[in-house]
Amino acid sequence: MTRYLLRRLAAVAGVLLVICAVTFAVFYVLPSDPAAHACGKTCTPEQVALVRTQMGLDRPVYEQFGGYVAGIFTGRTLGDGPAALECSVPCFGYSYQNALPVWDLLTDRLPVSVSLALGAAVLWLAGGLAVGLVAALRRGTTLDRSLMAATLASASAPVYFTAMMLLLVLVQRLEWLPYPDYRPISEGPAAWAGNLLLPWMTLASLYAAMYARLTRASMIETMAEPYIRTARAKGLYERTVVTKHGLRSALTPIVTIFGMDLGGLLAGAVITEHVFGLPGVGQLTYDAIFKADQPVVLGVTLLAAFFITLANLGVDLVYAVIDPRVRYA
Amino acid sequence: MILRVRDLRVAFPAGTAVDGIGFDLDRGRTLGVVGESGSGKSVSSLAIMGLHREAAVSGSIVFDGEELVGAPASRLRELRGRRMAMVFQDPLSSLHPFYTVGEQIAEAYRLHLRASRRVARERAVEMLAEVGIPEPRRRAGEHPHRFSGGMRQRVMIAMALSCEPDLLIADEPTTALDVTVQAQILELIKRIQQDRGIAVMLITHDLGVVARVADEVLVMYGGRTVEHAPVREIFRAPRHPYTQGLLASAPRLTAGSAEGSPDPAAGGAAGPAAGGRLRAIPGSPPSLLAPPPGCRFHPRCARYAATPEDACVTEAPELREFRGPLEIHEIREIHTGRALRPVGPEGAPAGPVHRTACHLTGTLGGPR
Amino acid sequence: MTGAPPTRPDGAPGTVPDAAPDAGRRSTPLLSVRDLRMTFGKRNGVRAVDGVTFDVWPGETLGLVGESGCGKSTTGRMIVRLLEPTGGTVVFDGRDITRLGPRDMRPFRRDIQMIFQDPFASLNPRQTVERIVSGPTRLLDRRGVIELLEMVGLGAEHADRYPHEFSGGQAQRIGIARALASRPRLIVCDEPVSALDVSIQAQIVNLLADLQRELDLAYLFIAHDLSVVRHVCDRVAVMYLGRVVEIGSRDAVYTAPAHPYTRALLSAVPVPDPEVELVRERIVLPGDPPSPADPPPGCSFNPRCAMARDVCRAEAPPLEIHGPGEREVACHFAG
User: What residue spans carry the Low complexity bias annotation (chain B) (predicted)?
Assistant: First the structure.
């Protein structure tokens, strides 16, 4: 088991390195001049040249890449002389436009995105599984059909539309909720959750709809398995048959999707954060793309890749726990 | 009498799968139910277990004096696994892949006998030992995919027997298994039945399996019973053209037994070649959606082809009793629920009767 | 049955000589399999087929029987080259076809056809029967297809239908018609009747026998049902764990089985006669067939064999001639 884990972690590191290289290559092959963007519109050509040296853009690509990777583990000094910038471990580059190391920007924004993703995940799992389960067990009834129609509508509504509708109804008209204004959890869980409720609902409505459909399909398939008939033939309560024998099997495909979805969201829900003005990684990404702040975009990409590969590893480990056939394979 | 079935009908939205079957089953006896796909044999057994969810079950199923048709679902659940248990065809897909076999065997025992986790686990180990699984204590902690096909079927049997049921229904229990393993499982079912004196309903398409383990045989065709007799009678003197056709069409393992007429053309060209033609039944089993009118077998029936009679097309033949080759007695009791077995001269019960449902059997009599 | 087999549309004479038995042709086997091997996986490979040798003569039926995992289907698949053998040779009509490339193999693919167990799985559900039977290379025109359909007991009215409109027995007839389209000389039948109802099995068995007689076909008949095999085969090979343990004429194998496994196998088959069942001697083998991934040393049957001695655990017995009927047995204590 330990050896398996180590092997998988090594694979994660490999994947990250490849993603890093690809992203790096894409950005530094683009025709725009990162130095000019980094410096700003008012820079003189001399200032741009200085920034270019600081960023190491005058050196060959592989050297730049080597320096970037090394910086993650050892930290680095960008440029030299009085204009030199200290970028401490782990150095994911420096955002000249924000005048901060990328790592500091990320760690600053991460709690917002994590709060958003985790809260939404709880809501969509609870809602999606419940709706899917009810629909599967009442398959073919009016209830099933209406639930599935609702999920279809919910899944196809764009996030900004859902967000606007929720704002309009819950904040403007009914005034049940305040306009979202992010508060860290350190200021009290009530303030934290209250202000995040609307973004959570927005994000969850999209995912819950997909999870409901997935759960329904998976559950219908599982309940047709011969071992479900065996469970009934043993005289088990229908409740036990559904939960212990049915749901446990039906959940395995959902675990996979959930890992990927959560991994992706941890690195920021761009549109949701933007719509609600939440200062998360998604918002940072949005700004960075608009301002062509390439060190930040690179950092965010790596962060997303890290979360997704890690989530994948988590999924595989969970799989080994639920499905013994995987364990022995 | 542990099980008494009368005029059992199972109707699905798409069509009627079982159309009025009836039989009795005693403790210590094995009833073989034979039929091809679509004959309704499995559907009947699921109806007895109360496992149909989208079908209308009517008629009467009396289990140990208690009517099950129309009984509340909660009562059926109490009986399932406790007093009647079932073994299915494919032991791998019938076992849950995520739980150890010990857990799966213990589950019903804990529920029905309110046993503690530890006691139930001991029971599981004991049952595994009883069905002949070596190192039962260790194997109880393993998952089904670690077992061979035959061992999985033993696990299924252990699971079915854990609460000491009175009735065991085995639906094609050896069809998915190899011949040598099939022999083991049949021996096991036989031994357990004798040791415990339970009633066994064995559903199969294999006439050989029936000949090996059954006391009585019910032959089903198109959702109806066509013949019901003690096992020796069915094989020695089959009366229904379908039963006769089935027996004649099956190739034999040993020379000299009743086999198709040797074909001289085959003998010449290929030396001691294929042993002649088999006497196949023409056509295919009927569809549930559009069963033929009258006797469901008449479109394939050799006897009907030889001496067609209107009744075969217009009227469903009733199951009638035979006492002697040409004597026919109506069995009215089937529908009224009165004692089925004729009473012998001194009031002692006679053996099970030979009944068949064919308009033409009476006129032609005798087998073949 | 209708008359002559259909001719190919290209007008080329068929490869099969007229059905009149020709004594001279019988002197060479149609198919010779020598020491055929199939190992799956590289390291600690699973030896699914471990040195199988047999001949199939023109116009005869050789039965290949054994339990699941004995390698009988793998052997059949290697002969039609659905699998590439990892060792041994397959000689068809005097020519070694084991290492032929796709181009050189083409004529032999016409000569050697296969019928599968699940008739529906082997028919493309989106093609009409006419297209299925005429094959991807349009081997036959519509008239030829209809002739073939009539030959297998179907009719012209079936040509434009799709597989799902047929029953299992009819679908298997279509599979047989498709196999016949290229006028093969050998058909590998892989469990051709085991998915069918008992009453339908007999129809297909009879059809195969009729076709064999009319078209002078040879069959390699792979099956686990020993009663069916006895009925259709001239000779029988019994496989256990990737090897042939006994091969000989049908009567020799069925009436006087010499290998303890064959004896147990035959005695395990339930016979549809309760009176025979009552008195019949039955050898119930202990345990399961071992996995080819982990074969026992020596004779692979020794852990389940009542006769096993030390020599059985030490060396694998070779296949040797034993008694009349050209019967060969691989057992240290045959007889």
Answer: 255-267, 342-353
Q: Which residues pair with C46 in a beta bridge?
A: C40
Q: Is residue A219 part of a domain?
A: yes
Report the phi/psi class of residue A235: left, alpha or beta, with left for phi > 0 and alpha for psi in -120 to 50. left
How many Å apart are CA A110 and CA A99, to the nearest integer?
Answer: 18
Which among A53, A68, A91 is the end of a domain?
A: A91
CA distance C191 to C223: 5
Residue type (1 letter), B80: R
Place of tokens 């719509």: A275
Q: How far apart are CA C61 and CA A273, in angstroms?
A: 74
Number of H helices, E strands in chain A: 15, 4
The residue in chain B having the minimum alpha-carbon distance to the alpha carbon of residue A322 is B98
Q: Is A5 part of a structural domain of the chain?
A: no
Q: Which of residues 58-87 of B touch A (CB under 8 A)?
A: 77-82, 85-86
Each of the 368 residues of chain B gets a pLDDT tens digit; together they read 899 999 999 999 988 999 999 999 999 999 999 999 889 999 999 999 999 988 999 999 999 999 999 999 999 999 999 999 999 999 999 999 999 999 999 999 999 999 999 999 999 999 999 999 999 999 999 999 999 989 999 999 999 999 999 999 999 999 888 888 999 999 999 999 999 999 999 999 999 999 999 999 999 999 999 999 999 889 988 989 999 999 988 888 876 433 333 333 332 222 233 457 888 899 888 888 888 999 999 999 988 888 888 889 999 998 888 654 433 333 333 333 333 344 333 333 345 678 899 888 754 444 43
**Cβ within 8 Å, pair C224-B180:** no
Q: Could you give the CA distance from residue A60 to residue A72 in angstroms, rounded to a whole number?
A: 19
Of C198, C209, C249, nearest to B36 by CB-CB distance is: C198
The span from the CA of B322 to the CA of B319, in Å, is 10
The domains located in chain C, with CATH, are 28-256 (3.40.50.300)
Residues of the domain holding A151? 103-328
Which class for A135: exposed (0-12), middle (13-18), buried (19 or more C-beta within 10 A)? buried
Distance CA B31, CA B228 (A): 10
Bridge-partner residues for B200, per DSSP? B30, B168
Q: Which of C212, C213, C227 sits opposite B251 (nearest CB)?
A: C227
Q: Does B157 touch chain A (CB under 8 A)?
A: no
